[in-house]
Amino acid sequence: MSDHHDLGGKDFGPIDVTHDDPAFHHEYEGIAWAISRSARAPAITIDWWRHCREMIGKEDYLSRPYFDSWIQTDIATYIDGGALTLEELLSGAAQPVTDPPPKTDKDAVLKLNQQANRDFSVAMNTPPKFKIGDMITTKAPRGIGHTRLPNYARGKPGVIHAYHGGHLYPDVGALGKHQGEHLYTVCFDASALWGTEARAGDKVYLDLWEPYFD
Amino acid sequence: MASYDRDKVKDIHEHLHSHLPSEPALRTKALMSVLEQKGYLRADNLDAWVAAYTEDIGPKRGAKVVARAWVDADFKARLLADACEAIKEFGFEGTATGHLKAVENTSTIHNLVVCTLCSCYPFSILGIAPPWYKANAYRARAVRDPRGVLEEFGVTLPDAVETRVWDSTAELRYIVIPKRPKDSEGLNEDQLAACVTRNSMIGTDRDLKVPAP
Questions:
Q1: How far apart are the first and last CA of chain A?
Q2: For residue A130, which of A59, A117, A134, B103 is within the disulfide window of CB 3.0 to 4.6 Å?
Q3: Which of B6, B56, B93, B108 to mutate to test the interface with A (most CBs of A within 10 A)?
């Protein structure tokens, strides 16, 4: 079971609350961000990319810098998809396979960013099983593979707070399938999640798909 | 074509761990170089993306939206009903705001946003997430101990105030509408936007102040 990315409820000590920071602290961070936005990546689902990031070894995942993990994930998905080999990467030499993309200046980038306003909703053929105000209980066991139901919210009671229609279901998206499931926002009493250490009345909200409920 | 094979990718990560240089900048340059040689990217396009997210796309966008909500009740109603549509009035929609949701602080409610499973963030309206948002410590504790987390940010929450933590587990993204600062009557929209901190739109700041002139 690879769940070292699932951090909710764990303790890694105090937070470095540095406030007045620039967008990018090192040149490579900006490059990593820009590669993720502009390179011609192999066609993959967003949840396969997330799952590939989750599969970085535990020590590296928890200790290496954030944008470094993006680069490692990009490399892994490129190699997996056959767009790149480890030998090419290590030798630093590769043959052209396509013409370079057109030049985009900042104004063009701002338009591309605007066009990236992606809709993840999916038309559903079945009605939702739950409505706002219904009580649900989340499934307890965690399987192998990608999921967006965190461990801390497993086997817990909650109340349907909102319904969002069908959305792409990440558990199968990570297997390359474009399939929708009904998506809800669920409100959990903090005390249902954390017991008496929580302040009564505090709430935690999660966006969860119908198959996550018993 | 992606394999969607977990074991294959685990093996790839092990090879990368063993063979790649440890320094993140060297790994990044290595990837950039071979992608450029193959024709998959142009280096000068990367500069344009960095410039856009350094100069144009950042928390000032969110601050403008919040200030508008403070002065225009109709806009605030549209923002709370469908933030994704409402921010189109500014042209701020884009990367990771396709399902944006605005949540409002009040005298009795404080909202805090986190992503415990990765670091989901509404890039097109708030820019690049601050380091602490992506750090293990914040991702781990925000859901369990929001009051303790707020204390570390210098925010002492009265016990009468309820916390609502939003864990971004799906493609919904959240922006907090903080409370309008005291003594801000008479300020125009631009002056109000200057009161809005990035952290207040994530929820790690609460009582905003009017900046000294």
A1: 21
A2: A134
A3: B6
Cross-chain CB nearest to A202 (options B52, B146, B167): B146
Residue in this structure with the two tokens 């999640």, named with its chain if needed: A193
Q: Rounded distance, CA A69 to CA A53, Å?
A: 7
Q: CA–CA separation, B1 vs A197, rounded Å?
A: 48
Write the pLDDT tens digit of every residue in A125-137.
999 999 999 999 9
Distance CA A170, CA B9 (A): 18
Neighbours of A138 (CB within 10 A): 19
Is the separation of the CB atoms in B84 and B97 below 8 Å?
yes
Cβ neighbours of A49 in B, within 8 Å: none
Quote the distance between the C-alpha of residue B8 and its chain's center. 32
Let me know: does B28 contact A202? Beta carbons within 8 Å: no
Contact A150, B169 (CB under 8 A): yes
Instruction: Give the tens place of pLDDT for each residue, A106-119.
Output: 999 999 999 999 99
Residue-by-residue pLDDT tens, chain A, 214 positions: 579 999 999 999 999 998 667 899 999 999 999 999 998 878 899 999 999 999 999 999 999 999 999 999 999 999 999 999 999 999 999 999 999 999 999 999 999 999 999 999 999 999 999 999 999 999 999 989 999 999 999 999 999 999 999 999 999 999 999 999 999 999 999 999 999 999 999 999 999 999 999 9
